[in-house]
Amino acid sequence: MPSLDHAAIVLAGIALFAAFVNGAIGYGFSSLTVPLGLVFFTNRILNPAVVVVEVFLNLYVLFINLNGVPTVWKRVFPILVGMLPGIAVGAFVLASLEPGWVKFWTYTVILPLILAQAAGWRRPVRFSWLIGLPFGTALGILYSVTTISGPPLAILFNNQGLVKNEFRAGLALVRVVESSVTAVVYYQLGLFIAESGDILRVFVPCVVVGIPLGAYFIRRVDAETFRRICMSFDAWVVGFGLSRVLIELDLMESPWAYSVMAITILIDAYLLYIFFTVRRARIR
Q: Of 9, 15, 72, 158, which is least packed with CB atoms within 10 Å of its CB?
């Protein structure tokens, strides 16, 4: 068991909250854990532990939504095929690039995706080989480098007109494949190291406690409002992480680098205002 230093305690708190969210809405563990975890650890240390946890989380979500799989598996098959070479490319990038730049690109790619999801971007997109294959490849690269795929997947699936069970089944099917294949590729590249094992031992009890709590909690609150608040928290965290890494790489000086976080908060506050204004009007 890792020593209870500051980083381990903070990471345990992050993982508990992320598991709670994952239990409530069916995804979100890596999207919340990784941005904050990167403040203390590099992707090479954090990613393997996150991927192992996600394999079991995704299998659990898939199991409880199995009756939705027959409806969606043909739709997501092109994504699964395109994902395989993408994961190989992304894992090689993770093993090759300097950790600071991996952090930078993680935050830079994820932030606009989170804000687009928070804005409720809607544009009907039909699953096809023309769309699914390149999307799957890009998703595989993104996931194997960052272990985050929730925002782009949520945007795509929200524009398919799927019912809740089909949405969760399709999401879980894609994520089971991406996490399992990524874990195998990480192992082949020798990315599982002792530090990752220490982080995994912190994650396991947090997941065991957080998942059932989240599943219990979501039955008693408005799921859409809770999901939207989690997006805001995620956006603010990524904005903070991007500001920090800009300072680490000497791309901007403090305190000017924190303008990125400030702009992110302002944009998200505006999107929150729109969300609650529209929601209030619908209720009336």
A: 9
Q: Give yes or no for residue 1 having a pLDDT over 50.
A: no
pLDDT in tens, 31-81: 888 888 888 888 888 999 999 998 988 888 888 888 888 888 888 899 999
* Cβ within 8 Å of residue 33, ≥6 positions away: 11, 14, 15, 18, 46, 50, 203
Helix (H) or strand (E) holding 107: helix 99-118
Sequence letter at residue 282: R
CA distances from 262 to 117, 201, 249, 258 (A): 19, 34, 19, 6
The DSSP secondary-structure symbol of 26 reads S
CA distance 79 to 76: 5
CB neighbourhood size of 81 (10 A): 15
CA torsion sign for 106, 142, 65, 127 is positive
Report yes or no: 261 and 243 within 8 Å, Cβ to Cβ. yes
Q: Tell me how far CA of residue 157 lies from CA of 99, 138, 165, in angstroms.
A: 31, 16, 12
Where are the domains positioned within the chain?
6-283
What pLDDT digit, counting tens, does each position of 179-189 carry?
Answer: 999 999 999 98
Give counts: helices (H), strands (E), the chain. 11, 0
Two tokens, residue 93: 């990038």
The single-letter code of the amino acid at 60 is: Y
Residues contacting residue 64 through CB under 8 Å, at least 6 positions apart: none
Closest CA to 157 of 148, 144, 166: 166
